[in-house]
Amino acid sequence: MSFNLSLRPRIRLLVDVVLLGLLIVLVENFRRLWGPPTKRGFFCDDESLMYPYHENTVSPTLLHWLGLYLPLISLVVLESFLSHRKDRGHWATLWPVYNTVRWFLYGYVSNDLLKVIGKQAIGRLRPHFFAVCSPHFPDGTSCSDELHRGDLKYHTDYECRSDLSQATEEMIRDVNVSFPSGHSAMAFYGLVFVALHLRRRRWPLPGSLLSPVLQLACVALAWFVAISRVMDYKHHWSDVAAGSLLGAGSAFAVTRAVVSEELQWRCQDSLASAKQEAAVADAVSVKGGQQMPHDLSLVTCQISN
């Protein structure tokens, strides 16, 4: 999602909005396009699937505030504050805000897409599988019957009995999408992105421990969300580890893209300023092949990129 900075701002904004919109539509409809997730079997004596059902410690609403809304609001406020401290043109003031927000949203949607691909493709059963599904076999028996005690057979032909487990349709539908943990992926992406951004901006109070403490708070919140999924028996520990790595990895990758795009913009901005200064000073070519100031700026930018 990198565009030529010479394009007009309105055109670039339109392209970004269209692409982000298409990605959001893809993510929201991915389950329909993919179809039912992979149906995995189980062993009747698999203790990792025998945990009770618990409600979420971190609700979906709270998760969206921690992983999306609060990070996005924080980034907009921070970039707006830092940009308005500098005496620059209107677009130059908005550019850091726009660049940070578009890459954050791009990373968020990409992280969500990778997560849902994993869930649909792997189809791993949740730790509370037996409590929610209450699986019964075609002959009407279940794992609690004497026939299947000590049975080493891997069962793939079964039906969930919500009338026995009192599970809702949503609980039945989500019982086999354990890998990776979506809570962990979202929390780690949003909060690690903010932590990395604070580190890059060296804000607030450069040289003090305030910024590292804020970064630690972000990571600690993400960590709590992740371990709550194991506490609530919603995920296996490996699901949480995979989701956390996915979210943190996406945050690192997108942050690097933000830095690269910003360096390119600063180089072009510096080059434009150098050309304006040269025009005002009515500079003339220097004999002997000596470079003009704006030429030197361009070379420096190319080397840095």
TrEMBL record:
Instruction: Show the SMART domains listed in the entry.
Output: acidPPc (SM00014)
As one GO molecular function, the record gives: phosphatidate phosphatase activity
Is Ribosomal protein given among the entry's keywords? Answer: no
Q: Which CDD domains match?
A: PAP2_wunen (cd03384)
- Matching SUPFAM superfamilies: Acid phosphatase/Vanadium-dependent haloperoxidase
Q: Which residues cross the membrane?
A: 12-30, 62-82, 209-228, 240-259
**What biological process terms from GO does the record include?**
phospholipid dephosphorylation; phospholipid metabolic process; signal transduction
The compartments listed are: Membrane
Where is it mostly found? membrane
Keyword list, A-Z: Membrane, Transmembrane, Transmembrane helix
* Membrane topology listed for this record: Multi-pass membrane protein
**Pfam families xrefs:** PAP2
Name assigned to this protein: GM22449
